[in-house]
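Question (not urgent): is this output format expected?
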Amino acid sequence: MRKHYEFSKMEGKKNPYVKFLKQPVTMRLDRDSVEYFKALSEESGIPYQTLINLYLRDCAAHKRKLNMRWCKGVES
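Got this back:
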């Protein structure tokens, strides 16, 4: 191994895999949802966080939207 390397003449290159990197986020999920994906994880051998990511990616790729409405609180 060399004692000194010359980096000043190197050309920088962008990381071609940058679009595949994952972004850490904090999400609050209900226990039933987490348990569902953990059970799927045990069946498939795929980590549950990976399963959640795959499911969300599929929803985004197919532009799926929830068909729901938020109800306003009932006035007493």
